[in-house]
């Protein structure tokens, strides 16, 4: 039996190179992912060095084909009709968010995307400028109480608190109160529940579906965290329903929560009996799952990018100085406005460089719906194959960058790397399933970074506590961040 399982589910398939997978583990132990000996980006860089541009990589019994050639990647993203959402996403996310956009395909995906996608275009986002600045100011008030010598070791958590507060207001018109607590240790129960979910993400990602389903069913802590999250959602839904039908209908075009709540199906049973193509609106479970997905996607990714920004600034005082010079060049007595924000070209380069140097998400996956041959490597792929595109490896590949990609150097985007290949830098993925929140994330990050740089300078808290490194969770989080925060004014 074991021999049969090993042969069928844990043996290299086809001619593509790779490390023969181990029983039950695939390549998890060999790559160092098990027990956090290596992070996902490190594992993929090592595999690429050993096996070249295209190789097999096994996460337990799931065989992924990793593609590093940019022309092949362009082919994959532009042939949306045959490279659909990765089955691994659908399988893994459907354990905890079965009805969310990310775990849907085809007509169901279109129904959900139609309700949410238009709300994340730049035009709808810029109106949140003051709200973001206000939230950053609240965080600055808390930081002011600490001495400039104090080494902040909780930057990841502080970034999460900030982004939760911001996304709560932008997405759900709801004050999460994550910045109100005067204490560094977080007491907000929603944050705790979300953090519990995130800390268990690797169980979901790396273990077979059956095991993680059992784990999540049996874990009382997980059930409790879900209960807490739903209690918050109930309050948010009630708050929106209290606005009344007319106001909700008006707000639908600009507010995520109004769009979701306003789309609740009147007769769920009737809608369930229709074919997916004819179905309209969202069931209550679908609404709750979209809230779960957007809350997680909306705060975790961007807060990781912010934590990397702060860590990298603490290591690069000259870059901080350049941002400050650009901010003061505008000669507007410390006022930050939308126009002024748009004029900050150097800051754009810094943010781009943060996304290149440390992409918060390691990669994305597509599943083939028919057989296909990749144009550059000539690799023959088959229906059902899952293709992984590793963002970090592309962003560090010397073939795709004129200036040494191992350097953190924002100026590259003003000079030799200005016209880099578009697919060498894809922190938000590509093609029809690329990130729908990317305009919001970029905007949030720019406003936050500009506001922070108006007031503070981050200092290196010492190599012991500020050595960086990767922690692979839902996102790739900086492992060791310890910075001082000095107020300039
Ligand atoms: C720095 C911040 C962010 C990063 C790096 C990021 C990255 C990504 C990536 C790589 C994907 C997969 C794309 C693909 O498969 O091609 C994705 C999907 C997604 N992101 Fe983001 N994201 C960020 C912020 C956000 C925000 C703020 C939101 C929501 C408000 C959001 C919502 C989503 C959703 C709903 C999907 C699934 C889309 C689908 O399945 O079609 N993301 N994101």
Automatic annotation (TrEMBL):
Binding site for heme: 435
Example GO molecular function: iron ion binding
Keyword Iron attributed: yes
Record-linked Gene3D superfamilies: Cytochrome P450
Domain of life: Eukaryota
Record keywords: Heme, Iron, Metal-binding, Monooxygenase, Oxidoreductase
Needed cofactors: heme
Record PANTHER family: CYTOCHROME P450, CYTOCHROME P450 FAMILY-RELATED
Sequence similarity: Belongs to the cytochrome P450 family.
Protein name in UniProt: Cytochrome P450
Native organism: Adineta steineri
